[in-house]
Amino acid sequence: MRRPSFSGFMLWAGLLFIYLPMVILVVYSFNDSRLVTVWGGWSVRWYAGLLDNRQLMGALGRSLQVALCSAVAAVVLGTLAAFVLTRIPRFRGRTLFGGLVTAPLVMPEVITGLSLLLLFVAMAQLIGWPAERGLTTIWIAHTTFCTAYVAVIVSARLRELDLSIEEAAMDLGARPWKVFLLITLPMVAPSLGAGGMLSFALSLDDLVLASFVSGPGATTLPMEIFSAVRLGVKPDINAVASLILLAVSLFTFLAWFFMRRSEARRRRALQQVHEAEQHPPAGR
Amino acid sequence: MKRLRHLFPGRQLVVGIPFVWLLLFFLLPFAIVLKISFSEAALAIPPYTEIFTYVDQQLKILANLNNYLFLGQDELYLSAYLGSLRIATVGTLFCLLIGYPMAYAIARASKEMQTVCLLLIMMPTWTAILIRVYAWMGILGNNGLLNSVLQGLGLIDEPLHILNTDLAVYIGVVYAYLPFMVLPLYANLVKHDPSLLEAAADLGAHPLASFWRITVPLSRNGIVAGCMLVFIPVVGEFVIPELLGGPETLMIGKVLWQEFFNNRDWPVAAALAVVMLAILLVPIILLNRNQAKELEGRL
User: Fold this and answer.
1) Residue B2 pLDDT > 50
2) What is the CATH number of domain B72-298?
3) Is the pLDDT of residue B282 over 60?
4) Domain boundaries, given as residue ranges, for chain A
5) Which of A140, B126, B153, B245 can bridge A201 by disulfide, Cβ–Cβ 3.0-4.6 Å?
6) In A, which residues are within 8 Å of B95 by CB distance?
7) To the nearest whole angstrom, how far is the Cα of A43 from the nearest Cα of chain B?
8) What residues 175-194 of chain B have any CB closer than 8 A to a CB of chain A?
């Protein structure tokens, strides 16, 4: 039955195509030679050197700070948006709302970045805020962009949920916010986690939005890397890039693992319910 | 559902918070871009003239189409738009040609294999595009890995000049956006009923014929979604042409960036963005309709 197929070959070739460059990058980050194209033996000197690079470390700190704040805000806003999209069928401007939630996913970043910057400039003129662009404006930009991702992930999960559980709780007299906090939220918690991690990763990676809305002194890690690699490949950037690859892979794997575990638990619970229905315990 | 709606005292708040945020930080900015695209560049902070002014308690509107006329006159902008569209179209086609068989193979694999493959496809989309593009700089360069290997094998004498050409941009585009093609295609292909193909085989159809006449038409929504998810962002792509492309690689994202950061001509940059958005409006609407259809089909 299983004979080598064209599509199977393409799958493996495609995965190789996706992963080989990243593997090469990681291997070369351990290159002792200062010339990035010549192999000079294994070494961790570029990693050790990173710790002394205050500019990069400062940028990393700022990036992590923005990513953490953006992830938290995006999870809150994205969950609200997903709840509105899936549980409130009619209100004024619903079509517009649906479009606004998903549009940031495909909008070219140069357009979003430029338009947000012009907004901040206009706001500074009109109401005096933000007086100076920096981490706060980057945070706003990233939150807006990540909210869309969280909303898509969470609303997919909310759509699958059995509404009757929430309705039963309401019939029993629970207030809506209580139903949300005690029933809906725990059931979608894994997708909140996944959305939060994705937001964190996206914010940590973003170059274009940050470059547009950032101000003096607020250089994030991607901006720092970009200005360094514009002129060519550098060994210490290889090391930073490898570390980021490692961190993001770990994050993705964890997010996937949590989603999968909760999925398995849900399936097991369903199966138990099913079995209990078919074979009711005797003597009840 | 009805009950949920009526018992909601804080409903306004729940709808209001995300709605106001998106209106303020996503929709309003586009209105401002549109406004500034009609103003004139000025040596001031911010570097553009005000369109609306009050003179003698009357609102005067000083809008002009100069920026748009300027875009039409200068050869550079036209070729940048065309270059973006060309690279996005060809890149999308290659993503489709490579991504379709990949998605097909995943959809046919065992459940266990599917989750692993999906994770492997998804992982890179979470990783910085900057870093993944940077990885290619070391491979494609004149004395990069590819050339060293080819020269070491004695296949070529002179290093191939790939980095800083359009070819490198195509490689980068396919590399960076392939997952966005595979994921929606997989989501569509996995829903197909295998009994259709079995019935076709029983009736004597060649596997290729049944693939072409059953699988491909059924996966139309997936194809449209995947192509739009690749095409739309690639048109505005900045990082790939900047790092892998050469001086002759003209793409609109890069030109907009230069206009804004190097020339500090904000009104022209705004006009460039407005025209780009107008070009992308049809694909974006197509994608939104498609997503809605796909969601309804599933429910």
Assistant:
1) no
2) 1.10.3720.10
3) yes
4) 53-232
5) B126
6) none
7) 18
8) 175, 178-179, 182
Rounded distance, CA A74 to CA B17, Å? 12
Mutate to test the interface with B, among A2, A7, A250 (most CBs of B within 10 A): A7
Looking at the partner chain, which of B102, B117, B131 has a beta carbon nearest the beta carbon of A10?
B102
Give the integer Cα–Cα distance in Å for B1 and B8: 11
Question: What ipTM, to 2 d.p.?
Answer: 0.84
The helix or strand, by DSSP H or E, that contains position B60, with its residue range, turns out to be: strand B58-61
DSSP of B82-94? HHHHHHHHHHHHH
Q: Distance, in angstroms, between B38 CA and closest chain A CA?
A: 14
Structure-block tokens of residue A41: 């033996």
Contact B10 A208 (CB under 8 A): no
> Which pLDDT value is given to residue B226?
93
φ/ψ (deg, to 5) at A218 = -105, 60
Question: What's the CA gap between A245 and A29, in Å, rounded?
Answer: 12
Q: Which helix (H) or strand (E) holds A79?
A: helix A54-87
CATH number for the segment(s) A53-232? 1.10.3720.10
Which alpha helices (DSSP H) does chain B contain, by range? 2-6, 11-22, 28-36, 66-73, 75-108, 111-125, 129-140, 145-152, 166-189, 194-202, 207-210, 216-218, 220-235, 239-244, 252-257, 266-298
Contact A122/B at CB under 8 A? yes
Q: Among A108-122, B150-164, B219-233, name the one with the lowest average pLDDT.
A: B150-164
Q: Give the mean model confidence (pLDDT) for residues B85-97.
A: 96
The Cα B115–Cα B110 span in angstroms is: 9
Chain B nearest-CA distance from A97, in A, is 7
Identity of the residue numbered B36: I
Query: Residue holding tokens 């005797």?
Result: A282
Please give the pLDDT value at position B271.
92
Cross-chain CB nearest to A80 (options B18, B33, B131): B18
pLDDT reported for residue B54: 66
Q: What is the DSSP string of A103-140?
A: HHHHS-HHHHHHHHHHHHHHHHHHH--SSS-SHHHHHH
Q: Are strands B58-61 and B52-55 parallel, antiparallel or unpaired?
A: antiparallel
Tokens 């197509």, residue?
B286
Q: Which of B32, B190, B215, B232 to mutate to test the interface with A (most CBs of A within 10 A)?
A: B32
Task: With a cut of 60, say whether residue B267 has pLDDT above it.
Answer: yes
Put simply, the answer to whether B269 touches A114 (Cβ < 8 Å) is yes
Contact B118, B182 (CB under 8 A): no
Contacts of B13 (CB under 8 A, 6+ apart): none
Poorest-pLDDT segment among A69-78, A128-137, B23-32, B248-257: A128-137
pLDDT for res A167: 86
